[in-house]
Specification:
With about 80 residues, this protein is mostly helical. It has one domain. The chain is about 85% helix and about 0% strand. Keywords: Membrane, Transmembrane, Transmembrane helix.
Length: about 80
Amino acid sequence: MTLKILSIGSALLTFAFAMHGFITDSNIFLGWMMLSLAMMILLMGIEEIQKDKKWIGYISFGASILISISAFQEILRL
């Protein structure tokens, strides 16, 4: 239940950052949007591992790490 709430919260946060960037045509929150997206993918991967879909869970975990690295690079650039 907690993972589902965190997943929905991170999805809403990602959507809010994306809509802000789309409406204002600004990339100031791009790193934070990518970080919340990475968190959402990480939580989805944890849910998949709990459902015994280990392969998809591990791929999601790896994608989350790669997106987090890109997000931190973007945040530190600004």
